[in-house]
């Protein structure tokens, strides 16, 4: 990686010139997001199997960055199913899980000659859970409101990820109790019969929460629950090896000493009084930075880092910290060594 030394300045009476810099190409970390590289502990595997057996949603909690969202993609990959995702927002409503009605466009079309007779289904598009329910039917029922990329894909079973449901208004989980349990929905703006999931292709629901607020008891009762703990060192090491094994940008061969030293350093950081404790995702990014900069914390001379390596290690902390206070704490701790 080429070190950048950006010095932008402006002197009175002089024209500001852009420096001729050779920027490094962006190269994504191959393998880090591959579903086949996801590792689930035995407890999580059991929870998935229980949810599948009971046909109930799987509610997953855990620190941000511990792999909650990736779990749904892994299940879809292992079972060879579609993955449909709903990213919850603070403005999300129950209907948003199932369909989107473009009321504004319909209103505008009613003022344009020739558009007044458009059918209502032209203004309705199914969303993640609604699409999954429609795809279960062996007939063309509801096909007209499916997104273009999902038409002619049924009948099929899907994995539906409802991501970070705790972001939603409290009414949303309560408002979808019956729909989630029965896997059916109605379109309020149209006089249609409810769409129901065919039993042979019942969607698999994975719901994630960062536990920022409590979910209603009635909603929790309908879910299989599992909390993903931060991995122990042995599991964390296996996650690193598995995620980097297909990576061409960072040398995939990690020595035991390299990983052990990085683990020790990282777990010490997690025990500090940080405002935001780094999780698995940050650790994977940090490992790639250490490797690309040639920083091996197991080296005999690591306690006497030269100025360049000390600066590089300090810079690597920007991956692990998310606040100014946390960065200062890590740097102070480093200078004590």
Detailed description of the structure:
By secondary structure, the chain is an alpha/beta fold. The chain has helices at residues 42-54, 68-79, 103-109, 128-135, 171-175, 177-182, 217-220, 233-244, 256-270, 280-292, 307-320, 324-335; strands spanning 58-62, 82-87, 99-101, 124-126, 158-163, 184-185, 195-196, 204-209, 224-228. The strands form three sheets. Strands 2-5-8-1-9 form a five-stranded parallel β-sheet, sandwiched between helices. A two-stranded antiparallel ribbon has the order 3-4. Strands 6-7 form a two-stranded antiparallel sheet. Helix 10 (280-292) packs antiparallel against helix 11. It is elongated. Residues 1-14 have low confidence and may be disordered.
The geometry reads as elongated
Distance between the termini: 27 Å
Largest sheet, strands/sense/barrel: 5 strands, parallel
CATH homologous superfamily annotation of the largest domain:
P-loop containing nucleotide triphosphate hydrolases
When the domains are counted, the total is 2
Supply the CATH architecture of the largest domain.
3-Layer(aba) Sandwich
**What low-confidence regions span 5 or more consecutive residues with pLDDT below 50?**
1-14
Broad CATH class of the largest domain: Alpha Beta
Give helix and strand order, one letter per element, not per position: HEHEEHEHEHHEEEHEHHHHH
Number of helices: 12
């Amino acid at each position: 990686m080429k070190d950048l030394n950006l010095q932008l300045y402006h002197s009175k009476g002089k024209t500001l010139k852009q420096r001729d810099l050779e920027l490094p190409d962006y190269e994504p970390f191959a393998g880090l997001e591959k579903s086949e590289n996801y590792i689930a502990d035995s407890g999580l595997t059991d929870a998935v199997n229980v949810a599948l057996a009971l046909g109930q949603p799987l509610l997953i909690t855990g620190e941000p960055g511990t792999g909650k969202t990736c779990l749904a993609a892994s299940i879809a990959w292992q079972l060879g199913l579609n993955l449909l995702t709903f990213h919850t927002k603070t403005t999300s409503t129950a209907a948003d899980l199932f369909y989107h009605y473009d009321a504004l466009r319909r209103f505008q079309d009613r003022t344009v000659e020739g558009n007044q007779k458009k059918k209502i289904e032209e203004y309705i598009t199914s969303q993640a859970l609604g699409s999954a329910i429609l795809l279960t039917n062996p007939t063309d029922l509801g096909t007209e409101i499916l997104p273009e990329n999902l038409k002619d894909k049924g009948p099929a079973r899907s994995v539906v990820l409802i991501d970070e449901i705790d972001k939603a208004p409290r009414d949303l989980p309560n408002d979808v109790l019956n729909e989630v349990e029965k896997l059916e929905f109605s379109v309020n703006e149209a006089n249609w019969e409810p769409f129901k999931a065919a039993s042979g292709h019942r969607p698999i629901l994975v719901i994630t929460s960062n536990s920022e607020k409590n979910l209603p008891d009635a909603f929790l009762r309908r879910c299989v629950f599992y909390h993903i703990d931060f991995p122990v060192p042995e599991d964390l090491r296996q996650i690193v090896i598995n995620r980097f094994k297909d990576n061409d940008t960072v040398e995939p061969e990690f020595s035991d000493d390299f990983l052990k030293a990085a683990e020790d350093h990282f777990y010490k950081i997690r025990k500090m009084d940080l405002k935001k404790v780094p999780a698995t995702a940050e650790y994977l990014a940090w490992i790639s930075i250490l490797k690309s900069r040639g920083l091996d914390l197991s080296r005999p001379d690591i306690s006497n880092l030269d100025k360049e390596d000390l600066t590089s290690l300090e810079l690597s902390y920007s991956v692990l910290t998310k606040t100014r206070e946390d960065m200062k704490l890590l740097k102070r701790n480093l200078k004590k060594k």
